[in-house]
Design brief:
Elements lengths: L2 H31 L21 H11 L3 H5 L6 H34 L8 H23 L11 H26 L6 E2 L1 H27 L29 H29 L7 H4 L2 H18 L11 H26 E2 L10
Parallel strand pairs: 1-2
Helix pairs in contact: 1-4, 1-6, 1-11, 5-6, 6-7, 6-11, 7-8, 7-11, 8-10, 10-11
């Protein structure tokens, strides 16, 4: 098999990893929306792959959950059946993470034995291994923040770090795959558009951070109105200066960033339209997606907020479905912008598989 086919095979394997990371993140969203994240009170990387196998083990797991504040002050009416429901989602979330590690390990061993790798891939693979390990560690640190007698949920700052680290892992993997898959002739050079794309990605990253704050604080239900926030255009709570922990302030900033991102992407799209007059590069295709996705993202955000009064805690209903779609489109938007960042390189940048 020639070098091109070998690189393409590795790239497809990496893209499968990106897909699995997106699924993993969505499972994390379901875990949060169903209040399942604190149901497993122990971290067992190996033995934890198996759920409780008999009544005694189920009761022991339930007793562990009864020791934390979420059960005592929020779910004290839970039966074993209720507990098993939330346990499933957290267990499946962790199981998928293990499966992701297995897919990576098997693929790495196979391609290594078959000599598909070249020396330029060594550093990226080392970084991927480190990022994957850190993601698991950050996840447990996040869960641990809620396993006590005083908190009902995990710390929203740590939840945001966990989410953003997952996005970093997905983006790094996608970039690696693009370097192996995309023909250099399909790229264009445009420093101005390249820099603007970086700016949009930075703004989107802050938006994603505040989206995670929204999720961790359950801030959506505090102002289920649009376009105003509970009848206000500028919430009085802005005066307290708390922009990371006040639920109304967080929602106000999250909305404001969404509008700003929409306007900036309109400008970006206009520049894309002028950037490739030949229409022979990938930009002719990839440049269309961010605008479509951000429009859909804004609409989903609005519908998610106004559906908050219909929320049913512990169940997966209309609000949870919209929130999951909102998160999914946000990830697609980030990935689409990253693809465009790769397609539009800045002047003087050479093609390489080294990050």
């Amino acid at each position: 098999m020639d070098v091109v086919h070998k690189r393409r095979a590795v790239a497809y394997w990496l893209l499968a990893g990106v897909f699995m990371i997106i699924i993993q993140t969505l499972l994390g969203g379901i875990t949060r929306l169903t209040g399942s994240g604190l149901s497993i009170t122990q971290w067992k990387p190996i033995m934890g792959a198996l759920p409780p196998m008999n009544d005694k083990e189920w009761q022991e797991a339930f007793n562990g959950y009864k020791q934390i504040g979420q059960y005592k002050y929020l779910n004290s009416d839970f039966t074993l059946s209720d507990f098993q429901f939330i346990f499933f989602w957290e267990w499946f979330h962790r199981l998928w993470a293990r499966m992701l590690g297995v897919v990576f390990a098997i693929g790495f061993i196979y391609f290594f034995i078959k000599k598909y790798f070249d020396k330029n891939m060594v550093v990226p693979f080392v970084v991927l291994f480190i990022l994957g390990g850190l993601q698991g560690l950050i996840g447990w640190v996040m869960v641990s923040s809620g396993l006590n007698d005083s908190h009902l949920y995990v710390d929203h700052i740590k939840l945001a770090i966990h989410f953003l680290s997952a996005m970093l892992l997905a983006c790094y993997t996608l970039w690696f795959a693009l370097q192996l898959l995309v023909n250099p002739d399909r790229r264009i050079t445009n420093t101005s558009l390249h820099n603007l794309t970086i700016g949009v990605i930075c703004l989107l990253s802050v938006q994603l951070l505040y989206g995670a704050f929204m999720a961790g604080l359950h801030a959506g239900i505090t102002a289920p109105t649009w376009p105003s926030i509970n009848g206000m255009w500028l919430p009085a709570s802005l005066g307290n200066g708390n922009i990371t922990g006040d639920k109304i302030n967080v929602q106000f900033i999250h909305r404001g960033l969404a509008y700003l991102l929409l306007l900036l992407l309109i400008v970006w799209f206009m520049k894309v339209h002028k950037a490739d007059s030949t229409k022979r590069s990938l930009l002719a295709t990839t440049g269309k997606w961010p605008m479509l996705l951000v429009a859909l993202q804004v609409l989903l955000g609005i519908f998610t907020v106004i559906s908050a009064p219909y929320i049913q805690f512990g169940k997966f209903g209309r609000y949870q479905l919209l929130a999951e779609l909102h998160q999914l489109v946000a990830m697609f938007l980030l990935m689409s912008l990253l693809v465009n960042l790769y397609v539009v390189r800045k002047a003087g940048k050479t093609d390489s598989t080294v990050f």
